[in-house]
Structures
1.
Amino acid sequence: MSNTTGRTIAAPIVMLLAVVVGVVTTVALDLFLLHWAALLIGVTLAFALVAVLAPMTPDESRVGADGTREEGTPLHNVLVVPMALVLAVVGGLVSSWVLDLQLLEPVAAALGALVGSVLAFVLFHRLAAMMALSFAAVLVAGVIAIGVTAAVLYFSGIPPLATFDRMLEYGTRPNSLVQIINESTTYYLAAVAVAIGFKMKLFNIGVDGQYRLAALMAAAVGGYLVLPPVLSQFVVILTAIAVGGAWAAIAGYLKVARGVSEVISTIMLNAIATGITAYLLTEGRLAVEISTNNIGTPPIPESGWVPGIPATFLGSEREIYGLIFLSIAVGIGYWFMLNRTRFGFELRATGQSKTAAEASGVNVKKMVFLSMLFSGMVAGLVGLPQLLGSSHYYALDFPVGIGFIGIAIALLGRNHPVGIVFASLFWAFLTQASGILPFDGIPQEIAVIAQATIVLTVVVVYEIVHRWGRRYQQQQIGKQLGRTTETTPEPATVSHGNGPDHGSAENPEDANGTPGGSDTDGTDDKRGGEAQ
């Protein structure tokens, strides 16, 4: 889009106008309509205002990641604009729903409209085409997964709409929300551990064994070694990191020293870790009797616990794991390492092409080993939120299989620290929401079908749209370069002989009398290239 009238409106003013339109419309319509319908209309009108005023809104930084200008292109108009509208409306609705847990409905709707209106401006002017393609892929995959799950329910004689409604109602209860947050905390750590390996094209299948062995040893240290507060938590966390990293380093060493596939070695190490855990978790070694039918490590003293966060703001009497801040710190560190450090650059470069990385001076074997080491160190943290926030000992009923769930979530979140957050929450929601189904006589495996389907469809659909987007992006770059070549005059050449100086500064016309040394049939372009 271009400013054809010559008039401009400052971007902050446009955003303020959008907020006013969105909030006022929502508040007014809330008197006659349901709050979600009023919010949807309000945010849509705010987005329409932003789109109308876009030609008069100066925004020279609105370019894609490849440097090409996207606004006004067919891809932007067909994909980016609708996707920005959908995301703005969804953001407003989710914000209103969360705020409605503590505030009055009209106030929550107004604040949700404010959030949606701000998102309408930001996304319209900042959402890149490739990011919009990613969101579109997830949306399409979600629709396909819901369709497949609904078909399975229908042919099983179970009403799909009633089942989905039941899951949504149960999964959004206050206590369910706390459980979803707690489960997603552990899922997130497992997925980041897997994603570090994926960035190097390494498949760390051994996260499950790494975190279980690390949790066992950390629980034993915390239970047998009584230390003051803070120091106790620090020692337990450090033990888990060390054990997880050391166990993954075995696979890394075998990979670089003997060429053993990390897939095979980590699977075998999972089996070995299971055997070691079973051997150590017996009475007379590391375990004591916890109850009549359960044994585990000695309970960690209260001084070694990590206090939970009261969830009264969600309307629940339960507590959110205090180590959720550890997951946040790991996510920030993962992003910073990938995008702001030399190691992260070499990690991504090696994952893209080992031969090119070696040619650039990167020690590929060192990168492989360190990637497995860091992946195992993060994997060692997976069991700690449960250990220090809830159970306080490692027993026979300690959660298992989280490492394999982390693989699916890393794929679903495209190995991105923010994408993994939403993937973890979605996975935990399906797991929690399906818990009510057996009481209604519906198989709980419906959630497993939905989870597996959406992972498969996200991977396939994302690859399809991503490749198409890359081709489209390359075509746009080619067109822009072509326009630049047509509008940029050819550089002057210096003659080094007695022959005619075609196209030189002193001889602006060529032998045919054509200005600029260019013939209509392109022959002089060829001669100019040969001269240069």
2.
Amino acid sequence: MRGLLTDSRPAAPIRLRLVAVLEGARRKAVAFGRRALGLDVPAADHTIAVLHRDESEVPELDRKELVQLDRIRLMGATGTVLMAISALGIGAQPVQQNPTSGVRVLGIFARAHTGSLAMCMIGAVVVVLAWLLLGRFAVGGIGGSPIHRLTRSQLDRTLLLWIIPLSVAPPLFSNDVYSYLAQSEIAARGIDPYQEGPVAGLGIDNVLTNNVPTIWRDTPAPYGPLFLWVGRGIAELTGDNIILGVWVHRVLALAGVALIVWALPRLSVRCGVAGVSALWLGAANPLVLFHLVGGVHNDALMIGLMLAGLEFALRAIEDTHPFDGRAYALLIAGAFIIALSSTIKITSIIAMGFVWMALARRWGGGWRAVVTAAAMLGAIALGTTLVISSTSGLGFGWIHTLNTASAVRSWMSLPTALGIITGFGGVLLGLGDHTTALLSITRPIAAAAAAFVTVRMLVATGTGRLHPVGALGVALGAIVLLFPVVQPWYLLWAIVPLAAWATRPVFRVPAVAFSAVVSVLQMPRGADLEVFQIVGAALATVIVGVLFIVITRNALPWRAHAGVSAPSQQPTSYGVSS
């Protein structure tokens, strides 16, 4: 018995050591988690913060630069006119009710596919070059600040001049507007567009069904109830008149662009960034001109409402002291508008999270402020969604169709591209095609990574390390890049809000380069083109582009000569710095 008691004595020190080890592991895990979320990262070490730098207020353009601005403005307008004319032949014209079919003069473009394609490609390149030249007077050169900057009115007039030709042209680069018309007509007939596709809802011989791309004819609507509610009204107004229906949907897209132009400079001033700089990258971007205006995409209305709601909410949070009744009115209005945007496309609801963290910080931080702000904004978002889903009569079927677009394998999506490349490698090695299985692995991992980045940005907003506008843009950038499907205009989900905050070359150079390259590479969707036609049009575009640059090398600011930008110029705070 005495031996047994003696053997049991060392157990206490062992337990103490075990407890100490577990406690040390727990502390390391907590420290790692806090560091991963950004809770214990000093502001100066926050990697995302390097994207932002306050911009300086500078004088207006001088006489020589005004002459160059007029030439750049005319250059961009010429490009959009060429694109609008070419759209008569290779735009996304309707299969039925094509207004140019059989018309002697206008119909020639549909018969000359190679010439029309070359005209469209040349026009697109001219617009992109004009946009890059306009950047000389908006943001200066790479890594520098402009010595002179064009005014807001000058940029607005330029943007309007470039938009007008595309706003009256047939759709370009996408047939999605015809899906909008068909799905809206299904809703107008009292059929659930979230259950039935165009073929089942309208019939295979219906004029609206015939214009929908084959891949989407049996697919239910992936859009929110507000968009289809408005679309149902358009369908009741226009009936089966495709041309009138397209024009009304384009009015909606133009309204979204107008909201972007209204909200973006106001948000940029909050971040210490010149409004003209933000508008140049976020609104005059060729992706906006070609895909939101020319392509008639509902993303324009989603982004516009999201930014407008964010501006109203930040007016309450940042500008109103004390937080009185007016502040609550602005906050509720902003949250309501953001919720409206999410009933067009659900992606924009992420903006509500950054309003939430900014509001919690304004209310003093701490768990009580976080929970109170979450309850208030969550009630607004939930109530808005419930009211629209119920009042529209469309219900909540849209929740089950959000993943519809994943049927497409997009080369611009990182997880999809990785899965496809790896699957193709397996085929080459004789292992079989396992692309589908690989996509089921890469896509969830990408979604988890995007969620982590979003949570990290929410924490950075709540702790005050990042402005809500910049954090929202970074989160949306992660979501877009890691999304299962990425279309060219999806890039604007991130580029537009980041244009109001991120000013460093590490962001602007890739954003500008990607916008320019994607805008030029995208093909019109109005004709079945052969390889030799694409090659011939591309060669013609290169020749015309090079000749144009050579001829105008002294008339346009192709080189950053004196007066355009100063790399060594240190910026001072523009407007209200964040």
3.
Amino acid sequence: MSRQIMSVVGGKEAASTATYDSTNPARPAEVVARVGLADAATFAAACRAAAEAQREWAKVPAPVRGRVIASIGRLVEANAEALARLVTEEIGKPYAEALGEVREIVDTCDFFLGEGRRLYGQTVPSEMPDKNLFTFRNPVGVAAVITAGNFPVAVPSWYLVPALLCGNAVVWKPAEYAAASAHAMFELFTAAGLPDGVLNVLFADGAETFAGLERALGEGTVHKVGFTGSSEVGRRVGELTGRHLQSACLELGGKNPMVIMPDADLDLAAEGALFSGFGTAGQRCTSLGTAIVHESVHDAFVERLVRALSAATVGDPAGDVLAGPLLDRKFADRYEEYLTWIQPHHTVVSGPVGRITKDNPRGGFDGGEGLYYHPVVVDGVRPGDRLFMEETFGPIVGVTTFRTLDEAVELANLPGYGLSSSIYTSDARNAFRFREGVSAGMVSVNNSTSGAEAHLPFGGNGKSGNGSRQSGMWVLDQFTRWQAMNWDHSGRLQKAQMDVAEIVPDLDFRLAETRLP
């Protein structure tokens, strides 16, 4: 029997104006949750409720808020398997990866629970006597957080945990197709003792969300927007927040390059390409887009990658598989459009393309009604091809060649994204030259393009984001505002830059000239 899920605003279920069925992509006829969708007015009301609750939450001492974050981590850890199974059921992520995703929440909590005691400001020396200068981190207020469903619990934690720790309230709008996972995570967070209204979860479609966000920004009840999703929608969110003199925290898509140098360990490189290109069925923002391979090792690398891919299992995400189904019907439809970008000058070296069925099988596996698709390697991709220039959210990887490292860096930067990148080489000079030249916010050496750790900054540049960073101490700048204070205890008005004591040097002084004997 499917779950019935509603938005929760101020600790109470909110009315819905429509419903959405979140289905299991491995068995699309199976409804995981029937989701009540809210409208723009409810979104705006949630932001007002959050603003009211935030005033009291900000007064809770930061170390106490840190203990709440610690409790969230322990609750998630105790419920890790149940939450991971729900993620697998709802979006088709292989169970081992789902467990890793849940672990990311725990790691994030473990990092930030101590930050409640380290929201440091500074004392700064003044240019005047009897005057002290200070800086403080203050919460921004209400954060509206909008997240995608390919990482339905890990990525939201990158926003929710630091935002709450810093004394903000949150209105969280998860993806509808991952609503059950999001609601379960919301329940774990609130079980840690968060007061009503400090964390609100709101389910709505894109149009109502955007309209509600626009209304809330106009009312002044949203002070920070976090968005994870496509570059196209990210631009609209950035434009909207910019009109209200805000900067959004944008984590967008990627066309992530992997450069294979002549001195690379080709077996290791093929393993990295397999995982980053086809793990989670290629539905990560950090998934491999194009393998940029030196012409001298092109054939050997492609042979290894295709062999590894042929041996990999695509199937039931509850089992030991490389990839399960695509997330949702809309992503399957979009992926089929990407397959039309394969041109006559391309060579598909991986075998069949399209949906896995009895008539289009993969290694004896019958995909049945599940949204399973053949992983595809397309060789001969050229700069300017859509397969080279645009994000392809699904199990498809392009391959092209280069002659010099400078050419490889140019190819890596050409699509205009800047999220993640990778280089395989045994020469440190190559690694550092690539790091200096590539536009990506994240660089891996002899590792895949995918993978994040809770204490490193995560984020991209160009079409992958606006330079904001998540995770680690860097994300604190997204959810706090610096406040400067000066305290003059001289008993008189001292004017900065005007009443400053001056010590006059003798700049004409010269040492007496001496002669050597």
